[in-house]
Amino acid sequence: MLSDWLHALRGSTWKGSGEAVRQWIWRRLDLKDQGRSGDAFGPEEVPCSGLGFFVGGRVYAPRPCGPQVLGPADALPNLGFAVLSRMGAKIPGMAVSVLILLAWALPNPSFAAADPYQVSVPVPDQSAATRRSAEREALARVLIRLSGDPDMGRRAELAAALRAPQNYFVRSGYARIRDPELAEAHPEARWLLELEADRNGILSLLREADIPAWTGPRPEVMVLIMREDPGGERLILDPRSEEARTLIRAGRERGLPLSVPLMDLEDQLALDVGALWARFEDATAPLQQRYQPDAMLMLRLYQDALGRWVADWDGQVGGEIFSAALEVPEPASAATMLVDRLSARLTARYALRLGGDADSLWLQVDELSELGAYASLMRYLAGVSGVSRVDLVQVRDHSLLLRLDSSADAERLLDLLRLEARLEPQTSPEWVGDVAVWRARWRHDG
User: Fold this and answer.
1) 70, 18 Cβ separation under 8 angstroms
2) How many whole angstroms from its chain centre is CA 53?
3) pTM of the shown model
């Protein structure tokens, strides 16, 4: 059918201890077996948690936890079906309530917030001078996220904008610092200045300075962090580890949505540390199936024969291999290095020039059998970063021939399409005369 396009081508212009809750439920069941009423429980018997509980028809308000609060990996997956079976058989009226409890308490992993235009800066006070300095820092951070260049705050062509950073924000406000980790990192700060940058103003600034920007969606990347202790024991680190916290914080700073596995019982049973360390191809399959990230990286930390820490990472992002091995001063610093290099690599690949002449990409999209699929495809293409115009050139059976005008060259635009994974172009084009036509399939969500 491809040859039939020739004429058209030429003519187209959870917070609390999971163990506490688990023990509470077991104790409650045992007392029920002994004939005690659920209402006999006092407030001191309610487990500490940031959540309220509804069990046996009674609502228990949240009770704050002390310093022994456990993290999300200590939630309830290993309560198991035995408890539900026991509850269902002996206390049918509680089953639905406990199911609700379990649904709220189970880990719900999420990727670090990655809106490049949202910035929070710790500040000691709300004075005008402090605010101006924080706005300057925030503007530089937004520019770094979009360009990938860590020196954006020192570029001469941006000096005027950095002297008047207030012109590039549309919303701002102060909030108390309540995160203990953030408070420890910034002991002098009492407030967070929360800012939202003006997207159009930022992009106009970059356009005038002729600086490419990565304005499209960013892949959700899961990083599996493994560490070999001096005794040779290899561990997969959970979200509470210093390395994982550093990784998530660095990803937020660079506008990358990063996550690490919860390493709860489900993960511990599914994963083979030895196979992961050895880079067996299917070793990460349980994580891919459970969390469904866009990409996955493995970071291995170990000491060499001289006692020096080595960071070794590898994986694929957007179909491109990303790997390195380098010496690091201490394990947590490896997370920052990984994020910096990943951000620079991805931005270099996906950043587009925001002005200049348009280039054209020809797409033949097949298997479009529903009107809804066609409509969602056209909406998607109109919103792709860098695409200025989408022309429907011809329709034949269940295929469309489209021409996309973009500020990016064809290869760069194809990289963006593959990264977003809604449209799947083939690895090479088919030629109609001297025109390259890329066949693709549209993943319609219904």
Assistant:
1) yes
2) 30
3) 0.67
Q: Which letter does DSSP use for residue 352 in this model?
A: B
**Low-confidence spans in the chain with pLDDT less than 50:** 2-22, 24-108
Q: Which among 300, 326, 350 is the end of a domain? A: 350
What is the tens place of the pLDDT at every residue in 380-401?
Answer: 898 888 888 899 998 888 899 9
Q: Which of 437, 350, 351, 348 has the alpha carbon at shortest distance from 399?
A: 437
Can you give the pLDDT at residue 169? 98
H helix or E strand, kind and range, residue 438: strand 435-442
pLDDT score of 385: 81
Picking from 293, 338, 295, the residue whose alpha carbon sits closest to that of residue 315 is 295
d(CA 276, CA 297): 11
Instruction: Identify the domain boundary among 208, 237, 256.
Output: 208
Task: Say which DSSP state 62 is in.
Answer: -
| pLDDT reported for residue 222 | 97
Does residue 396 come out as left (phi exceeding 0), alpha (psi in the -120 to 50 range) or beta? beta
Q: Which of 284, 121, 131, 301 is nearest to 226 (CA)?
A: 301
Domain that holds residue 175: 118-208
Q: What is the DSSP letter of 445?
A: -
The verdict on residue 2 lying in a domain is: no
d(CA 171, CA 149): 25
Summarize the chain as % helix, strand, coil (round to 5): 40, 25, 35
Question: What is the model's pLDDT at position 329?
Answer: 96
